Amino acid sequence: MRTIRARILWSLMLVMVCTVIVTVGFYSHITYRMLIDQTESQLLLQLDKAIDILEGGSLMDLEPDDLRLRFKHHEFNARFYIVDSQGLVVAASNERFVGKPPALQQTEKHGTSLLEGNKVMYVSEKMDGYTVVLFTPEKLLNRMFAESIRLVAASIAVSSLILYVIGFLLVWKITSPIKKLKEAVNLYDPDRGVLKVSQAGAAEIDELVDTLQSMSGRIRNHHANQIDFLQTVSHELRTPLMSIQGYANAIKDQVVTQEKGLAIITEESYRLIRMVDRLMQLTRLENPDLLQEEQWIDLKEMVLQASDLLSTNAMKHGVQITWTAQETRIMAPPEQLFELLINLLQNAIRYAAAEVHVSFGSTDEQWFLAVEDDGDGVPAELQERIFDRYFKGESGQTGLGLSICRRIAESMQAKLAYEKSELGGARFVVMKQF
To answer: Where primarily located (predicted)?
Structure first.
């Protein structure tokens, strides 16, 4: 009973059984009370009739056939006896009661009592020294009551069966699209494209279908990106490895000098190490368990530290690093933010003509950190691709720098965007809402 369909059907059955029990219980109580009230009313009506007969005749004129109790589908005679002033029965519907004290113990004028071990309903009235008592056994009422309950129970059972069949068909119709959706998801292959499932017609299920189709599209894109990523990584790693292998063989065969060959092998080895380091860095950033805790950071101090660290590289490229002198303290993971700043500065130094400028600050709503250069900037047709993995500009190295920067920003719940710099080149801005 683990499926939704089975749970709904069992729940429906349980609700219907409880409904039937409660309905029959209430109906039984109400019906029995109505039957009792109707019987008492019939007895009182026939009692008046019996008194009229006795007042117009003698005790022998009263017969059981004169006292008919009429119900909707049943009719039978009331029973009676007449007691004189001596307390003896002088006339009765059953001759064996005559001449004896009444066997029915009366405590009230009207009510119920026992007669020869059987429960009866009775009514009584006094007239001219006599007491007239009409009664009827309750087993006759119970027989009518049982017949009525059987009829009601049968009708409720039939209606419940019809409702259960209707509910079963509705549940089957509702859950069938879910089952088809489960089968489609189970057979889904990212290589085959977006998940294809027809709409069910129910708003909630259609929303689920749309969500799964959208998710399958994202999975397919991620799958395609993973394939491209592996192909690109394989190509990028293969190139320096082939150079290392080629020059090692060239040195062995004495085709090139040992000095020249070792220099190229060393350069390609460093390139390979940088690429592997970047890949490990990117993988680490995609693991949420490795994210650092936020601390209070002085942005001015961090910018000065990063500028000092890269000053030699900047001088090598003929670039000067400038910054704004503004005191700004923010909450952020220090190592990740410093790594982001270093990557942006290195990228800017490679493309700058003479200046790299760092600006930072905060408002009541957000803080920002911007790195810009006076280079040529990014062509409009390439601006959407600069954050993709392995997209390299003319002076790029691994093609992972800006991709890592964006991933770091996302891990900090910040936004990294490209803008055109007033210096003429590129401007990369990290922004985060407080």
So the answer is: membrane
Same domain, 113 and 13: yes
Tell which residue, 356, 345, 369, has the closest CA to residue 421.
356
Answer yes or no: are the C-beta atoms of 211 and 185 closer than 8 Å: no
Amino acid present at 397: Q
Rounded CA-CA distance 271/265 in Å is 10
CA distance 3 to 23: 30
Give the separation between CA 328 and CA 432, rounded to whole angstroms. Answer: 14
Owning domain of residue 35: 4-146
Residues 304 and 391 in one domain: yes
Q: What is the CATH number of the domain that holds 28?
A: 3.30.450.20
Count CB neighbours of 303 within 10 A.
Answer: 24
Give dist(CA 39, CA 145) in Å, integer. 12
**Distance of alpha carbon 60 from its chain centroid, rounded?**
82
- Asked if residue 186 belongs to a domain, the reply is no
Q: What CATH number does residue 374 fall under?
A: 3.30.565.10
For residue 311, how many other CB atoms are within 10 A of its CB?
13
Going by the DSSP 8-state scheme, the letter that residue 292 receives in this structure is P
Same domain for 273 and 329? no
Q: Splitting the chain (434 residues) into consecutive groups of 10 residues, what average pLDDT does each group show? A: 71 80 82 83 85 80 80 79 85 84 81 82 85 86 79 81 81 74 70 64 68 74 69 67 81 82 80 70 57 80 88 89 82 85 88 91 86 87 72 56 81 87 89 84
End-to-end CA distance of the chain: 49
pTM of the predicted model, to two decimals?
0.45
Residues paired with 111 in a beta bridge? 122
Q: What is the DSSP letter of 385?
A: T
Tell me the longest C-alpha to C-alpha distance in the chain: 153
CB atoms within 10 A of CB 77: 15
Phi, psi (rounded to 5 degrees) for 95: -60, -25
Report the C-alpha gap between 362 and 405 in whole angstroms.
20
The token pair at 299 is: 């942005």
Tell me the helix, strand and coil percentages in the chain, rounded to 5.
55, 20, 25
Beta-carbon count within 10 A of 284 CB? 14
Residues 421, 195: Cα–Cα separation, whole Å: 43
* Structural domain ending residue among the three candidates 242, 265, 285: 285
What's at 47, amino acid-wise?
L
